[in-house]
Design goal:
This protein is α+β, with helices and mostly antiparallel strands. It is 56% helix and 10% strand. The radius of gyration is 32 Å and the shape is globular.
């Protein structure tokens, strides 16, 4: 009985070779990219046994033994190959598929060989297309070819970089490439499978997929062209970017653009910059930043993370600074962390993409910005909080729910716990029981927490009404004359973070529209929040605080004192928010921002102290 080859290949890539070998080589220690120990197969005093986890093999330079995780457990535990596969799967926490019998295996092997042969044939056609397009860009006489050369000059892409990345131009012809492929000897069936053409079945017509576009070949790590990206040059060229479909040679999400050209520099530095598009990568290369790979505009995948892990230990994600780029960076973090990368995120000033920034500011400025890249944890906490008021229970629960999946992807147990604790401090979760529930749920589910836990978070972090905010509502609810003088003094920032914020917003809106404060008008404004409805009912149930004939002076002084109290509390909340941002700035090494935030805190503290003598309650 045998296991499918695809499973064996995947298991070999996923197996943690260091973890498998360590029980048999207690002195195994990291030395650069490799791990070294005294050989477990023979006695020696000086370590000559090398383990390369990125490439998945070991080698002893003393006795000569070497191989993969399967070879190691076969040798150490006396297992045959199927038993070794099972043992490595157990040690790696991977579920075994159903074994296949020899006949099924032979059929499957034949199918895989046929698939590989077809993929090789498609790569051969891609090579023909690539050479055709390179020549067209270099020597094409047509007007569009000249414009393509002018466009690349305008973008500052030198001939040297064009040749390095094998940039080409597809002529504006319906059958220019098809004729070249037919002359090469390819039949129409293979041409149709290559992804280089489009097929109109209704009209029974096949034509060039890429026409009048600048061509960017996607090379695998061995330098073979497996796909293409194409960019239009005019507004009429829609879509602006056109990519190869999946073919027998190309599966989306399994390759990284520019990795072939940049892998040596990435391996040398053990560090990669990850960008979104091919023009971002080429712009960086033009300015001498060559340890770069691009995710080809698709969501970064686990397969791409594993591929990058063969060459790098650290990654800086430098996607666009818009909301789509931020979301894509978050997704990339969650794919990179399981591969044990050291991950940081670079969001360039004014949301610029790498292409625009380095052209406008140069290599030195880009490297300086990259040196200040934000650690993944503070980036994830900050972006989960963006657009949310962490003093609002529901929004804080949403921010935590959005953030926690990042923690679940951290491979190192100690780092995972420390990151979780930092997050709980950042989100001001102080309840030990709640923290334990969130941690346990995170460990069980491995993808964050469930709605039930989020409801618990919302209840736990919901602020309780302060004496001042409740007293002010009681003063105002039955006193129209007092409302007319106090409501104009209330600013939105005074009540924005209060437990009763919806009630205050309703009081302000109704008063300014000239309406009466009654249960019906309040319900129209506060919606279906049960706790807020209960609070409103309690407020209405209180007796008026001032009789009609009583002078307003005393109630007015008390109400004004309550307003100042709320204002003071709002300033204190803002000081807390600034402190939270200052922690992230300090973690990111942004001294300028840190100092700015601390200065703002100090200024607000002065204002808060000046208001203190006039407050009614605290």
């Amino acid at each position: 009985m045998l296991y499918p080859q695809y499973f064996i290949d995947d298991l070999k890539n996923r197996a943690d070779l260091v973890r498998i070998i360590q029980p048999y080589a207690a002195d195994l220690k990291k030395k650069g990219a490799n791990w070294m120990a005294c050989c477990p197969f023979h006695q020696e005093k000086t370590p000559s046994f090398s383990v390369n986890p990125a490439k998945g093999f070991y080698k002893c330079f003393g006795c000569g033994k070497g191989g993969t995780a399967f070879n190691f457990v076969m040798e150490m535990e006396g297992l045959n190959f199927p038993e070794a596969v099972k043992r490595v799967a157990e040690m790696s926490g991977v579920q075994l598929p159903e074994p296949v019998d020899d006949q099924k295996f032979e059929r499957s092997k034949k199918q895989r060989e046929e698939k590989k042969q077809l993929a090789d044939q498609v790569v051969a056609l891609n090579q023909v297309a690539l050479e055709f397009w390179e020549k067209e860009l270099e020597t094409g006489k047509g007007e569009r070819a000249k414009k393509a050369r002018e466009y690349l000059v305008q973008r500052g892409i030198s001939e040297e970089v064009q040749k390095k990345f094998r940039i080409g131009f597809s002529p504006d012809s319906w059958d220019g490439l098809i004729n070249v492929l037919r002359d090469f000897g390819a039949d129409d069936k293979l041409i149709a499978q290559s992804g280089l053409v489009s097929v109109n079945e209704e009209k029974d017509r096949t034509y060039d997929r890429f026409r009048g576009r600048i061509m960017f070949p996607v090379l695998d790590v061995n330098g073979r062209p497996v796909a293409f990206g194409a960019r239009g040059m005019t507004a009429e060229d829609q879509p602006k970017y056109l990519n190869s479909p999946e073919t027998p040679a190309y599966i989306k999400g399994e390759h990284l653009y520019g990795l072939f050209q940049g892998k040596d520099e990435i391996r040398k530095k053990k560090f990669a910059i990850l960008v979104e598009g091919y023009l971002d990568l080429i712009a960086l290369a033009q300015f001498g930043v060559t340890n770069v790979a691009a995710s080809l505009g698709t969501a970064f995948t686990p397969e791409q993370a594993k591929l990058l892990n063969r060459f790098a230990e650290r990654v800086v994600i430098n996607y666009d600074g818009d909301s789509a780029g931020i979301k894509a960076a978050r997704r990339a973090i969650e794919q990179l962390l399981p591969q044990d990368f050291d991950v940081k995120v670079l969001v360039l000033p004014d949301g610029k993409d790498p292409d625009d920034f380095i052209r406008e500011n140069g290599t030195e400025a880009y490297n300086a910005a990259r040196g200040k890249a934000e650690p993944f944890l503070s980036f994830a906490m900050r972006t989960s909080s963006n657009g949310r008021n962490l003093n609002n229970a529901k929004q804080k629960a949403e921010a935590i729910e959005d953030f926690l999946p990042v923690i679940s992807t951290i491979k190192n147990a100690i780092q995972q716990r420390e990151s979780f604790d930092q997050a709980m401090e950042y989100f001001s979760i102080e309840d030990a029981g709640l923290k334990k529930q969130l941690w346990d749920s995170l460990r069980r589910d491995n993808r964050g927490v469930h709605q039930f836990q989020m409801q618990q978070v919302a209840r736990a972090v919901r602020p309780k009404p302060t004496v001042a905010e409740r007293r002010l509502l009681e003063l105002l609810v039955h006193d129209g004359e007092l409302r007319s003088q106090i409501v104009p003094q209330i600013e939105e920032s005074d009540y924005h973070n209060l437990a009763t914020a919806e009630l205050y917003a309703a009081f302000v809106a109704i008063s300014r529209s000239g309406g009466d404060i009654d249960p019906e008008s309040l319900l129209d404004h506060i919606g279906d929040d049960e706790e807020m409805i209960d609070t409103a009912r309690d407020i209405f149930a209180t007796a008026p605080k001032r009789a009609d004939e009583t002078p307003i002076d005393g109630a007015l002084r008390e109400a004004e004192g309550c307003v100042l109290t709320l204002r003071t509390l709002a300033i204190a909340n803002r000081i807390t928010e600034l402190g939270r941002d200052a922690v992230l700035a300090e973690q990111s090494g942004d001294t300028e921002l840190f100092n700015q935030l601390v200065h703002e805190q100090l200024e607000l503290e002065k204002i808060r102290r000046s208001l203190q003598p006039n407050v009614a309650f605290m």
